[in-house]
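The protein record passed on for reference:
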Amino acid sequence: MGDDPREPRVAVVTGGTGGLGSALIERLLQRDVRVIATYIIPDEATQFERRYEVDDETLALRRVDATDSEMMKELFDEIVEVWGGFHMVASLVGGWAGGRDVEETDAVRWERMLDLNLRSAIHTVGPAVPHLRKQGWGRILVVGSRAVDDAPPGQAAFNVAKAGVTALARTLASELEGTGVTANVLAPSVIDTPATRSALPYADYVDWPTPEEIASVADFVLSEHSDVMNGAVIPVYGRA
């Protein structure tokens, strides 16, 4: 696999069966990108397979825990062996837990938020970088949060974890300068998914951006048209 982004491209999307992941994968498939998506929740994978044709040629599913560094390394090694390599990595695994100030946040909540949001990103991008650097062209996209700037009270662990994700990507962008590989960050506030509405049943979701709207931005950032973007933190929260 050379450094020509016009050749058949391969994308790895962790958390691909979630709301944002599914919307992004749909856009990638529309432009003939081959996709390997990871998941954890079997029900999500079942629903995903009802929506898309999973055939291990155009679209493959793998049950992989993105917080496990060895599992992620094995996944990337498999992709290189079977598919010849990959061009794009979208780290979409994450989760939110609020309701606790710093002084009230217990160790379990800290670890859960760090696992889901920060460690999943670290263990995704870390083993991907050597492959992308070697081929001389690639795109890395992680998901931060508007909370990194706003630091709303009552969700200390989430705020800190997402700040770490942003720092990770911006550091990586500096390390990859001049290699043809870029790293950028999406910064949503809330995304209008069934899970978010369930977690915030009394919120006004009229202005929440949809997964499809955010996926359109993600798709551009992962494309060959985003060469001038590296280390960017891109707000994708509209009026929310």
User: Anything to note?
Assistant: The two ends are 41 Å apart (CA to CA). The chain has one domain: 10-235. The first strand starts at residue 10 and ends at 14. The first helix runs from residue 19 to 30.
